[in-house]
Amino acid sequence: MGNPKLEINGVSEIQRGRSGTITFLSNPKYKKYVKDTAASAILTADESVLTNFDGILVDNPQLVFAKVLEYFQDKPKIVWGIHPTATISDNTNISGHVSIGPNCVVDEGVRIGENTVIGANTVLGRNVVVGANSNLHCNIHVYHSCTIGNSCTIFSGTVIGSDGFGYVELDGIHHKTPQTGSVVISDNVDIGANCSIDRGTIGDTFIGPGSKMDNLVHIAHNVKTGRGCLFAAGVAIAGSVEIGDFCIFAGQSGVVPHVKIGNRAVFAVRSGATKSLSGGKVYAGMPAREIREQNKKDAVLSEIDILKKRISKIENDV
Q1: Which of 83, 97, 175, 221 is catalytic?
Q2: Domains of the chain
Q3: In this predicted model, what pLDDT tens digit does every residue of 246-275 receive, in sequence order?
């Protein structure tokens, strides 16, 4: 709506808009910035915003703005081919169109698909498989026999396939349990910086397709996640947990070992699941309970605190 010939050369935040850029309005609390923004156009689902403003009316401004950001993003140039300092074992199957950066180590039996980028100093252990169109940034270690699917992105510092935390105590000595499984990461999975996904003890740790991890997420041995799960920063999932499709774990939330979480369960910040929980509900607290129940509990504790202060005042006045 407005001037169809308006030239846009970038993007900006609505509260810090710049002339010549496009911004977006999704959250109503940011509507107060519309009248003062210097941005030249707005993506919005609210037609009233565009009464006196150039812009585009869309159903999902945040999604469309993400596509606009991708268009204007200044991406580092990819240098295709294998850097001369990379160490590549003889017995590998590497597609013809890949980028393998400086000082990478690619061990025997590794397979790498078309259009995949392996950043500098990354190590791919024996028999690792990396699919097509994936991007492994610098300084990543993928241990032996792990599988990474197509169109995956993994950021620096992440370790895939380290041993699960398994020990048996006898006479005051912790005896290590060999971790003989692997890690399978499905297609379209994004993994942030400094994450750790442990290999299974017996069988594989499995990350479902379309799942996304923030930085500093830990997934323990033999965990299995469904499709499209989201893990915010600091989440820790203990061993042998089964997670359904499209579950959301907010920052610093976690799950104890050997429980099941149903589809589309949501865990609030710093909540902890201590038993199996059904899907389609929002949980909070430690131990995690349905958020309405947790809110009632918090309200009672607040009332108790108020009563204690009143009693103390009465005792002091006597």
Answers
A1: 221
A2: 10-72 (3.40.1390.10), 81-291 (2.160.10.10)
A3: 999 999 999 999 999 999 999 999 999 999
